[in-house]
Structure to design on (471 residues):
């Protein structure tokens, strides 16, 4: 099943450049002079221990958090000049899922579809529910869903408008083996359709062979993973050990 | 412009649907407001006769406290599943999202006000209905102004840990002019000889505050919502 094409008059970009971005909360520096460039068709793993600044970095990329210093460029625009046209190209799955438990699965997706001004809301929602394997629960309140079901629905919500930039914070949380494999396949499809996909995760085994490269943060700073040919887990442990 | 109101309507519909399922806010605020009226009716009715003009104060106190309850919970609800971020990320004018939230709060407050006015009329002399049109206009304009300022503060404070303490600290000093105008206008209407000119003056003042507060809140919502 294929989705109808997106609105043609929207702003698009194929490169995202973060230059010397810092974010300070009071006296705490959550991100410190981070520079990274992401390209269309790239699947990037965002790694780091708890409190490393991953969520702040995703917030920065999503335009919800403004950098205290430095810039984030989406093609030729930034968050200020991009405005709502830029936000249309961003899909963000946060750890807290951004769903309304008092609404049904179908109502949640319909609400966001209409909020994004998408055409063919009903067919889009139907496709999304089918992908999430929630067709038979579409009229059930999200309140009664398991974490895995909510997670599958939230992934579809984040991808409903076919964004160029896909930001996923712990997308595998609560998913069973089958759902994890389906999500991996979905991410490969997104990569092939030239999306920029950033996955923040602690599950290093699941992203092995999935991501093209990793961006690793420690204490708000960018650190390098050695290109030794070892597994992501081995290289990550070594990099964190060196950083500390 | 139609897109602006489409989004506001969509957000308001969503809030009403969520509330119609949980009924959390409407029950909490209605019970609280009714309790308020009951307590005041015991304190202000002597020998079967209510103290003059007490109704005016009771209605507006109930409006202020129930409004505050509704405001803090409405944005807590958005925050509890990070849904506020979902709204802010949408490719729409953020002020339209604000207006949608505001309309939802106003609708809820109107429902509670109907309950409050009913009980106040029951326990007191029913003078609130002497000039229904002017009284309704005062209540409507007071509610909009109070909810506009309150919704902005509630949204601003949604991510702070001490929001339940900070909201009334910020809200009441700013909305005092509306409450004073509302009470004064209502008093003018429930006199044995109602002073309609004075009531119209206070109504005009609340409308003036509404315009000022709505303009300021629509202007400041977007920058305040960027972390």
């Amino acid at each position: 099943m294929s989705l109808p094409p997106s609105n043609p008059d929207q702003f698009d970009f194929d490169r995202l450049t973060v230059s010397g971005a810092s974010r300070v909360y009071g006296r705490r520096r959550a991100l410190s002079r981070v520079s990274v460039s992401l390209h269309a068709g790239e699947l990037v793993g965002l790694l780091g221990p708890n409190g490393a600044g991953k969520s702040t970095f995703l917030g920065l990329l999503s335009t919800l958090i403004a950098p205290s210093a430095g810039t984030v460029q989406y093609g030729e625009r930034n968050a200020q000049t991009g405005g709502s046209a830029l936000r249309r190209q961003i899909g963000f799955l946060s750890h807290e899922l951004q769903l309304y438990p008092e609404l049904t699965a179908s109502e949640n997706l319909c609400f966001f579809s209409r909020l994004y001004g998408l055409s063919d809301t009903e067919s889009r929602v139907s496709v999304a529910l089918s992908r999430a394997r929630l067709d038979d629960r579409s009229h059930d309140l999200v309140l009664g869903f398991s974490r895995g079901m909510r997670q599958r629905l939230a992934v579809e919500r984040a991808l409903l408008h076919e964004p160029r930039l896909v930001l996923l914070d712990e997308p595998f949380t609560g998913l069973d083996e089958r759902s994890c494999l389906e999500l991996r396949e979905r991410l490969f499809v997104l990569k092939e359709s030239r999306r920029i996909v950033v996955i923040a995760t602690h599950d290093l085994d699941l992203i092995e062979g999935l991501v093209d490269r990793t961006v690793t943060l420690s204490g708000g700073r960018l650190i390098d993973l050695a290109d030794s040919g070892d597994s992501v887990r081995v290289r990550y442990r070594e990099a964190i050990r060196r950083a500390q | 412009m139609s897109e602006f109101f489409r989004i506001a309507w969509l957000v308001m519909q969503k809030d009403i649907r969520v509330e119609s399922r949980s009924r959390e806010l409407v029950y909490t605020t209605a019970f609280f407001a009714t309790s308020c009226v009951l307590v005041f009716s015991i304190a202000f009715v002597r020998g079967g006769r209510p103290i003059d003009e007490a109704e005016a104060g009771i209605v507006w106190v109930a409006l202020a406290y129930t409004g505050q309850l509704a405001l803090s919970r409405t944005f807590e609800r958005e925050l509890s599943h990070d849904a506020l971020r979902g709204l802010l990320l949408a490719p729409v004018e953020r002020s339209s999202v604000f207006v949608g939230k505001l309309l939802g709060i106003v609708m809820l407050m109107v429902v509670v006000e109907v309950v409050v006015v009913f009980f106040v009329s029951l326990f007191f002399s029913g003078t609130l209905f002497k000039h229904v049109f002017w009284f309704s206009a005062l209540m409507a304009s007071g509610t909009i102004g109070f909810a506009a300022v309150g919704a902005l503060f509630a949204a601003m404070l949604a991510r702070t840990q001490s929001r339940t303490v900070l909201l009334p600290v910020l809200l009441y000093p700013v909305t005092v002019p509306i409450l004073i105008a509302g009470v004064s206008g209502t008093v003018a209407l429930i006199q044995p000889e109602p002073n309609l000119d004075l009531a119209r003056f206070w109504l005009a003042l609340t409308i003036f505050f509404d315009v000022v507060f709505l303009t300021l809140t629509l202007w400041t919502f977007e920058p305040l919502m960027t972390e």
